TrEMBL record:
<comment type="similarity">
    <text>Belongs to the heme oxygenase family.</text>
</comment>
<feature type="binding site">
    <location>
        <position position="24"/>
    </location>
    <ligand>
        <name>heme b</name>
    </ligand>
</feature>
<dbReference type="GO" id="GO:0006979">
    <property type="term" value="P:response to oxidative stress"/>
</dbReference>
<dbReference type="InterPro" id="IPR016053">
    <property type="entry name" value="Haem_Oase-like"/>
</dbReference>
<feature type="binding site" description="axial binding residue">
    <location>
        <position position="31"/>
    </location>
    <ligand>
        <name>heme b</name>
    </ligand>
</feature>
<keyword id="KW-0479">Metal-binding</keyword>
<feature type="transmembrane region" description="Helical">
    <location>
        <begin position="260"/>
        <end position="280"/>
    </location>
</feature>
<dbReference type="GO" id="GO:0042167">
    <property type="term" value="P:heme catabolic process"/>
</dbReference>
<keyword id="KW-0408">Iron</keyword>
<keyword id="KW-0812">Transmembrane</keyword>
<protein>
    <recommendedName>
        <fullName>Heme oxygenase</fullName>
        <ecNumber>1.14.14.18</ecNumber>
    </recommendedName>
</protein>
<dbReference type="GO" id="GO:0006788">
    <property type="term" value="P:heme oxidation"/>
</dbReference>
<dbReference type="Pfam" id="PF01126">
    <property type="entry name" value="Heme_oxygenase"/>
</dbReference>
<dbReference type="InterPro" id="IPR016084">
    <property type="entry name" value="Haem_Oase-like_multi-hlx"/>
</dbReference>
<keyword id="KW-0560">Oxidoreductase</keyword>
<dbReference type="InterPro" id="IPR002051">
    <property type="entry name" value="Haem_Oase"/>
</dbReference>
<keyword id="KW-0472">Membrane</keyword>
Amino acid sequence: METEKKTHTAAEQMTDRDLSEQIKKVTKESHVRAENTELMLSFQRGKVTLPQYKLLLCSLYEIYQALEEELDRNSDHPSVAPIYFPAELARLKSIEKDLEYFYGQDWREKIVIPAATKRYSHRLRQIGKENPEFLLAHAYTRYLGDLSGGQVLGRIAQKSMDLKNGDGLSFFAFPGVSSPNLFKQLYRSRMNSVELTEEERNGVLEEAVRAFEFNIQVFEDLQKMLTVSDNTLQSSMTQSKPVKANTLHMSGNGIYTSSLFRMVLGLFVALATVSVGMYAL
């Protein structure tokens, strides 16, 4: 009986030291903050339109371009090498394929990147140069989120936009992963095996929280854009003829429409929640 008790205690201590479990614990509060937003609950009802999905892909492109370029550049780093799975996980080419499907061959000239997304991308490039071990936090939250909740998003997108034969949904497909659950176990095991000093481990945990906060900042950034858009729309409606609610307005590098950004806000909060909340599956 005493032996069983000691074994159980040792197992608990080992779990407590697992980096993946520690990340889950330190991001719990941020997860709850995002999960309980009204827009997140709205997204869960499955309302996704083509314009919203296209904007989502634009931000995913910017984020994954920075993340994967830094992972490639640091692939031999002792903290990155164990979790470096480009053949199985890389998303950039898939996103480019989707963007070309929706925007055409000149998609690079048409995509729109929100300011908060650019800040997130800048942070990824910064740590890639200065603290490569911090990439652990971003790679873990992004990729395992894609393998878990991202599949839910894929089904919602396909059904809502009536996309056939997987066209425009390459981002959600992982042909190199035969079993997502088994692969996630392998990924966690590899991640937990990375040797870090106490200072480095604390830094990775702080970066995991920061990763979630970047997603929330994207939400807040879009919320501000929505407020400006609503005010502008209301002002224009008092001075001119009514504007159709679902009309997409493009001006310079910005895309502004009230109903559009309400849904995009839901998408990004959902993305944040999927990224760091559903890897426990």
